[in-house]
């Protein structure tokens, strides 16, 4: 008996039922049955048996696993008289890779997160290498027992070739801009727009050597990445410049028309590094990112065996599904994803999503219900292998519904049953009232305009204070029906925040906002550190920049990056 099977048996007892656990290798996934009065959970492997235990506990046992670290139990939802026969048939997942992208260090909630992922049948976590290196061995084992693969990767040019080391020994490894090699800053920041001289043969050999060494030192890691530091700033030396057509700029939809495309030069690097790594470590998968000015496959580029692309739908519209031709943004991403699927030659395609908005959408509303299931079916049809989304535990009361439904949709669950299960599992007899509240929040988004890109200006510019007040009142009414329910309390905080942020936005639009107004809003937000509404560090960073802008009596649009602000002004005109 393997350790995951032992865990499945332990969890079965924990959630109060008995079943026979059976390995049947020809099944595509777990199956729930009752035969001669006995519950049987059959599955092709131990991880699927574990999934079956959790599924039975939720589907028939009265449990709900919506929240990280919180198991809800409702005796009235427990089904005791189940009929003989197949209770839930085995069904292959729509997407084989389902998971999260973690852009923050592991912490005291990591074990609870891994537990939640298994309960919701997620099996993948992409994390920055600098954070993976600090993950305790017992937590690695905790994840492995639950079938969770952890990719050590993300933006990592500086991890493979750290500027604080190679900047002194090999300055020629770094990008040349305006005729001069950059002086890499090093450190733990994002290193925005600090790239490498990617055509340098010695650099490429060093990256491969570092990868081989890393995998030897971390034998549990089977997937690593080669992803540029975030931003732009590609090398312009004589050799690198041969890979650019400086008249061929990036695209409006991918927020990169102000820079020239870097797909050819990036993919040339990937082609050689992946091939050399495969010669030494054919068991290692190398991932890379399709993003901003390198979204689509360059001419002739193929996803070979051992390669996987994370296709990022950055600044996508959340008011349309991805393929909707009525949208000015999303169909471009749909075509890119399909192009990557056509480029597969043994490799794989994952969609990198932002079901929390990008980092500075700041807990403003984003809800995906039926469209979540629609898009997962599309991805499966196109040949996509996986779906990953950025997330935070700290804002779970805001975006947890997206994470939950993503997990169910990617497994191929029924949309209506999953959505109904969300409301009934969290709100019980008040499910209808809760759904009415959420549908009104969704209506607010859809009424904001044809397209909505998830940054604050896009929403707050186009909604009314009265709409926010109505939602705040509705959230209070829903909470009053179960005043001890912390999740409902969070919904009240969420809607009051929307109202307060909208009022601040209008004050700024009128030219009357001050630094003290920012402090007042920020202090109110920080009153709720025990809620799961706010990622507080993001607010300090964002509103710290807002205060700088207001103190200098300049226009605040977003995060005071010139190129971002220009896109926002274009969006105002076009969307």
Question: What characteristics describe this protein?
Answer:
575 residues, alpha/beta, eight-stranded parallel sheet, four-stranded mixed sheet, globular
Structure description:
- It is a single chain.
- The relative contact order is 0.08.
- The chain has an eight-stranded parallel beta sheet. Strands 1-3-2-6 form a four-stranded mixed beta sheet, covered by helices on one side.
- The chain is an alpha/beta fold and 575 residues long.
- The radius of gyration is 24 Å and the shape is globular.
Write the SSE topology.
Blueprint: H1 3-14, E1 20-23, E2 31-35, E3 38-43, H2 46-59, E4 61-67, E5 70-78, E6 85-88, E7 97-102, H3 110-119, E8 124-128, H4 129-132, H5 137-145, E9 149-153, H6 157-160, H7 163-169, E10 176-177, E11 180-181, H8 201-217, E12 223-225, H9 238-241, H10 263-280, E13 285-290, E14 303-304, E15 307-312, H11 330-342, E16 344-345, E17 348-353, H12 370-382, E18 386-390, H13 396-411, H14 415-427, H15 431-446, H16 456-460, H17 465-480, H18 486-509, H19 515-526, H20 536-551, H21 562-574
Helix pairs in contact: 1-2, 8-10, 12-13, 13-14, 14-15, 15-17, 17-18, 18-19, 19-20
Discrete helix count: 21
Shape summary: globular
Tell me the Rg in angstroms.
24 Å
**Given the helix and strand composition, which structural class is it?**
alpha/beta
Give the amount of beta strand, in percent: 5-15%
* CA distance, first residue to last residue: 58 Å
Total count of strands: 18
The average pLDDT value, as a whole number, equals: 97
Main sheet: strand order: 9-8-7-18-17-15-13-12
Query: Spans with pLDDT under 50 lasting ≥5 residues?
Result: none
**Subunit arrangement of the protein:** single chain
The portion of residues assigned to helices is 40-55%
- Biggest sheet statistics: 8 strands, parallel
